[in-house]
Design a protein that fits this description.
It is found in: Cell membrane. It is built from eight helices and three strands. By secondary structure, the chain is mostly helical. The chain has one domain: Rhodopsin 7-helix transmembrane proteins (Rhopdopsin 7-helix transmembrane proteins), CATH 1.20.1070. A three-stranded antiparallel beta sheet has the order 1-3-2. The protein is globular.
Length: about 300
């Protein structure tokens, strides 16, 4: 095994193990909290869906990387390649949409009650289900072209392939089809990430102004404490920054390698880190910092 494969294996194992454990812990925590409540909160449903999307990304990317790291040439096959690559791409889109919905719901939740945005606040968990269903429909359709162009390495003349994806290969497609689906993916990413940035920025600004009012009303001896709303603000900002970093760098790298046909080991190692990074790190951000905005915020 050369140094490139050693580095690839280290990156793979250091992300997939903690990633699976973190998402399982997050799911268990959400399940325990929901079991104690008579009515499921909308934010819990969104977080469970985000954890589910993360697990799809980790498992599908993990299978693909497992075939690469341990040289299982016929491990996936044609159907396995189509399934893993398709699910990984679809789950990536679901993660984008779900993170956006999480940020928007939180921003609406803590907005002043006199504003128009409070009317958009979901009151029950059932009210967020249509959005999640819409996310599935959109991402299933956007990723559908992969089912026609992904082939297993053992059943393909590799001279006709244009992209290597862990013992799976992508066949060349018509330029109009390629640009159509790339445009849809780019449009989806820009819309949802712009909404996420706007809502998170609005929430951070609101919490910052609220914190200044609290410090003005109370004595200065409380200034060194860390109010729950400030911790919630940092949680959202860290999660948003983590999301934007991993997904935009991954998008740029995928765009570059797709059109320059670059398959060097450095690019593959970076892409593996980016594909698994957000899905592996985000549950620990959610666990270490309570994303739920405290009810005491509305009491002041």
């Amino acid at each position: 095994m050369n140094w490139s494969n050693v580095i690839h294996t280290i990156i793979f194992l250091s992300l997939i193990g903690p990633g699976i454990m973190g998402n399982i812990l997050m799911f268990a925590r959400l399940g325990y909290t929901s079991a104690l409540e008579t009515e499921k909160k909308p934010i819990d449903v969104i977080l469970i869906h985000l954890v589910f999307s993360n697990m799809i990304i980790i498992c599908t990317t993990g299978l693909k990387e497992l075939a690469t790291v341990f040289y299982f040439r016929s491990f996936l096959g044609d159907i396995g390649c189509k399934t893993t690559v398709y699910l990984a791409r679809m789950a990536r889109g679901l993660s984008i949409c779900t993170t956006c919905l999480l940020s928007v719901v939180q921003a609406v939740t803590i907005s002043p009650r006199t504003t128009f945005w409070t009317k958009l606040k979901p009151q029950t968990s059932c009210q967020v289900l249509p959005f999640l269903l819409l996310f599935w429909i959109v991402n299933v359709l956007i990723s559908s072209n992969l089912l026609s162009y992904i082939k297993g390495g053992s059943s393909l003349n590799r001279s006709v392939a244009i992209m290597y994806i862990g013992h799976c290969y992508m066949l060349p497609s018509r330029h109009i089809i390629k640009w159509f689906f790339l445009s849809l993916m780019t449009l989806r990413d820009v819309i949802f990430q712009s909404l996420m940035g706007w809502s998170s920025g609005s929430m951070a600004l609101h919490l910052y102004n609220h914190h200044k009012r609290v410090l003005y009303l109370y004595s200065s001896r409380f200034a060194n404490n860390s109010p729950p709303e400030i911790r919630a603000t940092w949680s959202i900002l860290i999660l948003m920054a983590c999301f934007l970093f991993f997904y935009w760098v991954d998008f740029i790298l995928s765009f570059y390698t797709g059109f320059t046909v670059t398959h060097d080991s450095i690019s593959l190692n970076i892409k593996t880190f980016l594909e698994l990074g957000y899905a592996s790190f985000s549950p620990y951000v959610l666990i270490s910092r309570n994303v739920r905005v405290p009810n005491t915020l509305h009491a002041h």
